[in-house]
Amino acid sequence: MLGHLGFSYIGLIYLLMLFIPNIIWSKNQPIDYDYTQENKILLLFERVGQICCSCSVLIFSDFNIASFSAWSFWLLASFLLMILYEICWVRYFTNEYTEENFYRSFYGIPVPLASLPVTAFLLLGIYGKVVWLIASSIILGIGHIGIHIQHLKAIK
């Protein structure tokens, strides 16, 4: 449950799926975006979770594809959430760059650009049976989803 040290190509793929749209977003932020009022405690949870998740997905080989079993459905569910995350980014980039568009739900999923990747990393941790990624995802979720919910409430 602690994990086997070794490089994870699945982790690298997930991080690329996460970072590439965020890099593009940094040049296309919502025109009305104000991040100066973020809760410092949530921000701390977010940063710690980001660092721990990023490290965990790369240094444990348990996330790499193994022989197919019922356990593989955790990986498939996780990857499906990452695909939905990418679709949400496409939706954002092909519409107006506003906070309302950035935070809007996706088929009932609240703040999908925060909740989808966090949940995907949590499921990846379950698939790999790596407690470090599971715990990191929970920490990240508290901060990242919490901040997104605060922003969403502020624009309503």
Automatic annotation (TrEMBL):
Keywords on record: Membrane, Transmembrane, Transmembrane helix
Transmembrane annotation, as ranges: 6-25, 73-94, 106-124, 130-149
Name this polypeptide is given: Uncharacterized protein
Source species: Neobacillus rhizosphaerae
